[in-house]
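Input set for joint prediction.
Command: fold jointly, output tokens.
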Amino acid sequence: MEQLISSRTVIPLVRLVARKLLRTNPAAVQHCVYATTQADTPIPPSSSTAKHGAPETPVFPSRMPDVAPGTSSSEGPRMTTAGILFPKDTGEKIADLKKEEKQGKDKRQEQRQQTERNTKCDTASSAGTMKAWQISKFNDVGGMKLEQDVKVPSLSDPFDMLVEIHAASVNPFDIERTRGYGENLIQYIRTASKFSWMPQTVFTRKEQPFPLTLGRDFSGVVVDAGSLVHGVKTGDEIFGVIGPHRQGTFAQYATTSTWCVAKKPATISHAEAASLPYIACTAWSVLKLIENLPAMSEKRVLVIGGSGGVGSFSIQYLKALRNVHVTAVCGTAAIDMVASLGADDIIDYQASDVESELQRREKFDFIFQATRGDYDFSKKYLKGMLKSFFVTLNYPLLKNIDERGSVAGLAKSAADYSIEYAKGLSQGYHTVWAFFAPNGPFLQDVAKRVEKGQIRPIVDKVYPFEELPAAFQQVEAGDTKGKVIIEMKK
Ligand SMILES: NC(=O)c1ccc[n+]([C@@H]2O[C@H](COP(=O)([O-])OP(=O)(O)OC[C@H]3O[C@@H](n4cnc5c(N)ncnc54)[C@H](OP(=O)(O)O)[C@@H]3O)[C@@H](O)[C@H]2O)c1
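tokens >
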């Protein structure tokens, strides 16, 4: 009450005094304003005051220096003084200060989280180095060496993430890469990924890729993520693939892009999850083509190489669709495994003549050749009428570019494909050369199907990280049912 009375009577009085004072000595008022808001801060002299004594027009700071709410409360009478000078603004000012403090808190929290992320990244690369299997020239599988102090890769753009690799799979492509297969094309992709000037990308070579880490897919944990990474964050368990221009996954860490990954299926281990990304990203265009084929009745599909990585994945995916009948071609030892994937009919290419077996069966809408070997004869067993497809993973595109360079190699491949396509059309079917392409959204779909039990990972054998050469030997010998996995972290 006493305070109320005093403020009611005193404020108008002091306002009057202040107005008079403002007219006669603005510097004194300015001093008063500073004193009430910046109790412990020295008062900077107004430049005009310093030079000329009292200026003709008052010079106030355009924005009051920040002060935390309550810091001036211990100064008692200042409340009154502040009220005199800015009676209506005081509430707003406190609200502003509170807002600024909250913003400051948010910013500090964001900074703390960023530091945490960086710390995790630093922990990941605390020594700055990692173990990685590398080759120093294109030679053979025997040229791989387990290096102990390879630099941990860094994020090169905001879509990148750094992944701690727990497991990776060995693909036939990795074996071929030790001999330089595909290097010409990959060299161009590598150069283009650095946004180099296009003519240089197309017409010149070449930057040495060594030391080179192989390995194209993985399951692991995100340890650092660029600002434009979406769908996953630091600490998430993910599985995915790596673009061909990057250092590979037979290492403790690797970087990849946000569109190459998906959350790992929760129901399976890292070793099992690592068996899926490369084969899924190879098969997806073929499987989507079959899925979207219009059909009045059952679609009949022949999968050649049904026991391999791509084949075993494809059979399961197709059997999860409605109205698809799958005949698989595989070796004797794989028959039980292929039957367990849901294949409706199996042809043993080792115990029987595949062509005679095909003659005995109804014709197919779709043939998917997911293995090496010459299966051109099978095209006769397509229904034709321009509604059938022969899709293969084996064609000479990379070989042509390796042998002739990009321009001549692409031209030769275009000619080869045109001839094959025209031949196929004349017999009533379409020819498709399918290829691996990173596809995070499809991997997310695969993860859901795994969790629902529609697809199970087929792992032939898991090797410790140190035994990668033995794993390469097994894949090279073609002695696999499903996938061969390398485990970096249990
Ligand atoms: N173009 C691309 O982008 C691309 C991408 C990925 C893969 N590929 C190619 O696609 C093929 C399959 O890849 P993958 O990862 O599934 O290979 P994979 O796991 O090694 O499987 C190949 C399977 O083919 C079977 N096979 C071998 N000889 C056969 C024959 N004469 N007839 C029928 N089956 C036979 C083997 O099964 P059995 O044990 O039953 O004999 C083996 O399991 C490979 O040739 C690979 O190079 C191409």
